[in-house]
């Protein structure tokens, strides 16, 4: 093997070792920073920021009220999981539903939608710029599809539920397929 290839191979092994040694390749830590500051409008019409939820765990889900299946299912799972927590645990968490369709999901629309899933669920909306910023901060995704100009379209979006700590730091996330009992068990362990 030529000397240059051997040196390059050693360099790669050293870099991977350093990364692994710092815990950047483990499954229990996010590969990048998730979350961050935001300013949005809640379902009561009040302007809020992430600081309004400081000191509480935030259970954050991105979706939209016109979603035909994924969002209602995920929000029902969140509501069912919250229903399995004791009063003290429940007091320490704020479930948050952030719209990815601010064009249709006004505060009024959110106010009529979020109580269907849990009485603590907070619906957040804002301008498209504000929503895009928080979606980007959470490394989530959304894109309008099938828009023919008539106002009937769907929004393709990620479907993870993020658990953020009282300091706003990412703790873990749950996939769309996570059963409510499993989510409740994990929340109870952390809360």
Task: Report what the structure shows.
It is a single chain. With 191 residues, the protein is of the alpha+beta class. The protein has two domains: 1-29; 32-190, Glutaredoxin (3-Layer(aba) Sandwich). Helices cover 35% and strands 22% of the residues. The protein contains six helices and nine strands, in the order αβββααβαβαββββα. It has helices at 3-21, 70-83, 87-91, 107-113, 128-137, 180-190; strands at 39-42, 47-49, 57-63, 93-99, 122-125, 142-145, 154-157, 161-164, 170-174. Strands 2-1-5-4-3-8-9 form a seven-stranded mixed sheet. A hairpin with an 8-residue loop joins strand 6 and strand 7 (154-157). The protein is globular. The model is unreliable at 5-9 and 11-26 (pLDDT under 50).
Can you describe this structure in just a few lines?
The chain has about 190 residues and is an alpha+beta fold.
List strands and helices in order, with pairings.
Layout: H1 3-21, E1 39-42, E2 47-49, E3 57-63, H2 70-83, H3 87-91, E4 93-99, H4 107-113, E5 122-125, H5 128-137, E6 142-145, E7 154-157, E8 161-164, E9 170-174, H6 180-190
Parallel strand pairs: 3-4, 4-5
Antiparallel strand pairs: 1-2, 1-5, 3-8, 6-7, 8-9
Helix pairs in contact: 2-6
Anisotropy-based shape: globular
Span between termini: 55 Å
How large, in whole angstroms, is the Cα Rg?
A: 20 Å
Structural category is alpha+beta
Order of helices and strands: HEEEHHEHEHEEEEH
Provide the β-strand percentage band.
15-25%
CATH superfamily descriptor of the largest domain: Glutaredoxin
At the fold tier of CATH, the topology name of the largest domain is: Glutaredoxin
Helical stretch tally: 6
CATH 2nd-level architecture of the largest domain: 3-Layer(aba) Sandwich
**Helix content range of the residues, please?**
25-40%
How many structural domains in the coordinates? 2
Note poorly predicted spans: 5-9, 11-26
CATH class placement of the largest domain: Alpha Beta
